[in-house]
Design the sequence.
């Protein structure tokens, strides 16, 4: 009995030492980023299962789009929204408050891409983040997608504005869980927040 009590005590002490190290400074275990109270060019999407996707924004390529995305993150707009569209070997898409692909923030922004007269050289390669839109070029608002596999047919026609720099495996798991019928609910972004390199 005494040996078991000692083993339990050692476990509690070790766990107490390790747990703070996993979450110190708002940083996920093994993350290269830490939470920021200021607006940055890095956005962390914390999913409902606490997995994390970090996006590096590219204001040089798409300044209007990046500013809009930052404003929406700062206002808490994305908190609780789902990835409502999952396409095999293509994209996962979210940012719609209606959850069905028809909603937005109540306004539209200029489409920053070549077909709309804007120089944006960011290609739709794996991990690139881009704005979803309907047919009119200036019809994006809040919906965005993460490219799962290179989609060059989107280049020059959609406003790419960032790249996933951490957590691409989370996007891959969303796709695979969907395709394998493992999703019990649409994947939700519990919180969108700003981070900075650690």
Sequence:
């Amino acid at each position: 009995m005494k040996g078991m009590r000692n083993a339990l005590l050692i476990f509690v002490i070790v766990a107490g030492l390790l747990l703070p190290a996993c979450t110190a400074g708002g940083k996920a275990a093994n993350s290269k980023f830490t939470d920021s109270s200021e607006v940055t060019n890095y956005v962390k999407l914390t999913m409902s299962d606490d997995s994390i996707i970090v996006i590096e924004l590219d204001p040089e390529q798409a300044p209007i789009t990046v500013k809009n995305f930052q404003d929406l993150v700062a206002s808490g707009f994305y908190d609780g929204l789902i990835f409502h569209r999952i396409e095999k070997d293509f994209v996962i898409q979210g940012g719609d408050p209606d959850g069905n692909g028809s909603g937005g923030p109540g306004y539209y922004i200029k489409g920053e891409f070549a077909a709309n007269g804007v120089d944006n050289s960011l290609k739709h390669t794996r991990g690139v983040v881009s704005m979803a839109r309907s047919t009119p070029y200036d019809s994006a608002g809040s919906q965005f997608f993460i490219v799962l596999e290179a989609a060059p047919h989107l280049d020059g026609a959609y406003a790419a504005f960032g790249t996933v720099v951490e957590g691409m495996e989370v996007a891959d798991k969303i796709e695979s869980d969907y395709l394998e019928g493992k999703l019990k609910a649409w994947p939700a972004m519990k919180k969108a927040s700003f981070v900075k390199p650690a």
